[in-house]
Amino acid sequence: MAKMTLNLVVWRQADANAAGRMVEYVVRDASPDMSFLEMLDVLNEDLIKRGEEPIAFDSDCREGICGSCGVVIDGVPHGPEPGTTVCQLHLRHFRDGETVAVEPWRAASFPVQKDLVVDRSALDRIMAAGGYVSFNAGGAPDGNAVPISKSKADAAFDVAACIGCGACVAACKNASAALFTAAKISHLALLPQGAAEREQRVLRMVAQHDKEGFGACSNEGECQAVCPKEISIAAIARMHREVMHATVCSR
Amino acid sequence: MQGLGDGYFVIPYTLGHYLAADKLEPVTTDHEAFAEAEDVAVGRLRKLLAVKGEKTVMQLHQELGKVMWDNVGMARDEASLTAALERIPKIRDEFWQNIRVPGTAAGVNKSLESAGRLADYLELAELIARDALQRAESCGCHFRLESQTPDGEALRDDENYSHVAAWEVTAAGTFELHKEPLAFENVKLAQRSYK
To answer: Which of A41, A117, A139 is nearest residue B108 as measured by Cβ atoms?
Structure first.
């Protein structure tokens, strides 16, 4: 297949306290079959050989399941392809000679550490506030010993697909982590294992979400549009119902 | 496959319960073992950054990967493993003499992270090749071409290799073998067949 050229404009920032700026790079002889991150790898090899600092970005599995990667491409978290992390986004979705802007997630709760790397530990702290089952569950139960309806299992699985990448925050004009938090709350709220701590879980996780400085949800649906796992904002509605249940109905 | 290839580990129930149920006293970094480990780690980072050579981490990683792919795959034999053991120390020497790691040790440095991992891989690669060469039988995913049944199945040699091989690294590139024998009291060893 023909090689292609991309004109990149990339956010460079030396560290958390330094001022950042957009820097232009030309990537020549890129293969359309490369992923976006492989293209950055190639560019970085060139930069290192030229004695410059490579562009820092996060990645790990490169198969769309770990949640490590994520950059904003032309204003869209994870780029133009729906339901795709940036590691699974291939250059065939770009035009030869196209100019592409690459930026880190932008949110006050995700401070930039370097270039395209942001600190997403705020999401970890939301999980630590209640995104687990803390009682002693013992060994793995026998199959079908805990009955769960197919529809509930499917719904729980749909939200459990969240990889915690933070694209929902990056897409939101309020920098809200509502979709992430709602996905984690819904996952356990739908399953019997999560029932014992249902009320305290939602209240603690929502409180931590707010404490981290994430904004409120105003139902724009931008998060759902960029979520690489295509998690529906119906999860956010469920989170609101869980808050209602915990504060009003269960008392 | 996730368990084998992706480093995707799930903490067993017992360990989670142990950590949750045990009262873990807070620890400080005052212990002399911490200072020692920190000195080693900082020294290693400084050493990596100071080389300022010509080859990138990715270049040497790919060279090592090619050696492993060509010579230390599931099917390996004495010739391929011997060839790998000639090449790997050379790549390791080049790594420590000609690596180029940009940036500093302060803050995020992805190249430095990768360089540290590659330094580990270079040791691990040699260990895998050495162990595979020592074990002249076929066993599980270790298929020595010299040791197969007439219809191409893995042929074990229980008389000589019924042991776990524990390798002690005494200095960089020096490996000492400790054999931990395996005793089978209840289950008799047999040729495995999927047919």
So the answer is: A117
**DSSP codes joined into one string, A82-121:** TT--GGG-BGGGS-TT-EEEEE----TTS-EEETTEE--H
CATH code for the structural domain at B54-181: 1.20.58.100
CA A46 to the chain's CA centroid: 29
Residue B60's nearest CA partner among B85, B97, B104 is: B97
Tokens of B173: 């590139």
Count interface pairs A-B at CB distance under 8 A: 41
pLDDT digits (tens, 9 = 90+) for B13-45: 567 777 778 888 898 999 999 999 999 999 999
| Rounded distance between C-alpha atoms, residue A213 and residue A207, angstroms | 10
Could you say which DSSP state residue B13 is in? Answer: H
| Sequence spans of domains, chain B | 54-181
Beta carbons of B84 and B72 less than 8 angstroms apart: yes
Find the mean pLDDT for residues A164-193: 97
Put simply, the answer to whether B58 touches A45 (Cβ < 8 Å) is yes
Question: What pLDDT does B9 receive?
Answer: 56
CB-based contact A54 B108, cutoff 8 Å: no
- The beta-strand segments (E) located in A170-225 are none
What letter would DSSP give residue A52?
A: P
Contact B108 A15 (CB under 8 A): yes
With CB atoms and an 8 Å threshold, state whether A52 touches B58.
no
The shortest C-alpha distance from B177 to chain A (Å) reads 34
Report all structural domains of chain A as residue ranges with CATH numbers, in order of start.
4-113 (3.10.20.30), 121-249 (1.10.1060.10)
Backbone Cα Rg of chain B: 21
Task: Answer whether A15 touches B (CB < 8 Å).
Answer: yes
Instruction: Name the residue facing A48 among B13, B21, B111 (closest C-beta).
Output: B111
Q: 3-class SS at B67?
A: helix
Tell me the ipTM for this assembly. 0.87
Instruction: Please indicate whether, in this complex, the C-beta atoms of A49 and B56 are within 8 angstroms of each other.
Output: yes
d(CA A155, CA A178): 18
